[in-house]
Amino acid sequence: MAKDYKKDPTTIKNYNELIEKLKLIDVSPQEAYSLAYKNKFNYDVRHFWTMFRITNYLKSRMRDAVNLKSEYNIEITYPKKIWYLYYKELKEEKWYNNKIWQGPLNNYKKGGKFWETLWYVDPAYWSDLINAVLENKEIIELIKTKKMPKRIDTCREVSLFNEWIEEKEINFEWIEQEYHKWFPGKKVDLYQEVQNLHKLVTDKRHKYKFSPRYLDIRKIPKWKKIRWQRFDWGEEESRYMSFIEQSNKNSKVMQKRVPAYAKSTYIYKELNIDDMRYIKVANYLLKNSWYGGKVNQFKYYTQKNINLIR
Fold first, then answer.
1. How far is 257 from 267, CA to CA, in rounded Å?
2. What are phi and psi of 21, to 5 degrees?
3. Residue 263: CB partners within 8 Å, gap ≥ 6?
4. 61/308 Cα distance (integer angstroms)
5. Average pLDDT over every residue of 268-280
6. Gap between the Cα atoms of 59 and 169, Å rounded
7. 130 pLDDT more than 90
8. What per-residue confidence (pLDDT) applies to 247?
9. Does the pLDDT of residue 163 top 60, yes or no?
10. Residue 256 scores a pLDDT above 60
11. 32 falls in which pLDDT band (50, 70, 90)?
């Protein structure tokens, strides 16, 4: 039975009528578009969690891919200007350790991993250096002949958040807290998390999610404002406030310590209460404004490179 247009107030026959009805209920164009967009594409916590998991997986695979250069001692041909700057700045690790770090010396060159040595180079050149490695025929062949970790191993690493920590130092309580940032109070099954991520990576139905378009948070309305309050803010507020106070003291020291020509690379901003109270989703995902705009991650997380390292 056809709808009775006179009785159904939600029936819209064309765009002109849609505009008139939106005006009647005082909905702005931006609000209408945002509501429609979020409803159609379901941008909820689960969606951002999926973006976050895929992003971390690809970051880990990217690191392993470019480190093949060091592991197999592959000579890379860089653009002349980039190579000169890379070679010149790579020798400055003493400057980095003495002027910036001022702690136990980090000899990344001795570690022999290309990814880590990027910390000695101006971030403005990271994308070009990474792309030069991934365009090398020997590197491509090594990736295609499965010289990288197995997918399940990368899924396990990402699920344990141990891109930054040694396996012997895994703190499961801390890992659970990381999960609770997204799903407060939910019991964490790490085995199941590994399996879920592996299914996401291998199931062809999720192929479209491994693309720059899907992972680009900037396509989402008001993406800079997407955030939620920390699950433990109420009971841990005083601890977070102490952290802010100490962090701001350290920032003031570092602002004076960093040479003028490095201030655009090493940015030490003072925190405010909202920086700790809320989790800003954009900070966890791919951005084109990393390091104050010096690093455009979408320049090397291209569809071609994602297909190569995935």
1. 12
2. -70, -35
3. 255
4. 10
5. 90
6. 21
7. yes
8. 93
9. no
10. yes
11. confident
Q: CA separation (Å) from 127 to 2, 42, 54, 86? A: 57, 32, 20, 12
Residue 76: which residues within 8 A CB-CB, separation 6 or more? Answer: 69, 132, 133, 136, 139
Highest mean pLDDT among 171-175, 197-201, 256-260: 197-201
Nearest alpha-carbon partner for 283 in 212, 210, 217: 217
Q: What's the one-letter identity of residue 182?
A: W
Between CA 268 and CA 273, with CA 272 as vertex, the angle to 5 degrees is 145
**The tokens of 146 are what?**
């499965």
User: Is residue 10 very low, low, confident or very high in pLDDT (cuts 50, 70, 90)?
Assistant: confident
Question: Crossing angle of helices 137-144/45-66, nearest 10°?
Answer: 120
3-state secondary structure of 189: coil
From the CA atom positions of the chain, what is the Rg in Å? 23
Residue whose token pair is 């925190």: 271
Q: Which token pair is 297? A: 């991650």
Helix, coil or strand: residue 27: coil
